[in-house]
Amino acid sequence: MATKQGKKDNRLSDKEALHIAETTDVSPGQAKELAKKHGKDKAKEEAKNFKAEG
């Protein structure tokens, strides 16, 4: 079965999600959702903005 070319894997590992949760004010689950929506590279930045807005 062929894989999609150019598609980035934006999933966070549990360890990565926990790190974002510890350094921001979101839960690990929210961190994973933000990574899916905005990309793995921007997840931490979006997590900081997520609670600042909410």
Automatic annotation (TrEMBL):
| Region annotated Disordered, chain positions | 1-54
Top-level taxon of origin: Bacteria
Q: Where is the composition biased (Basic and acidic residues)?
A: 1-19, 42-54
Q: Please identify the protein, giving its name as recorded.
A: DUF3606 domain-containing protein
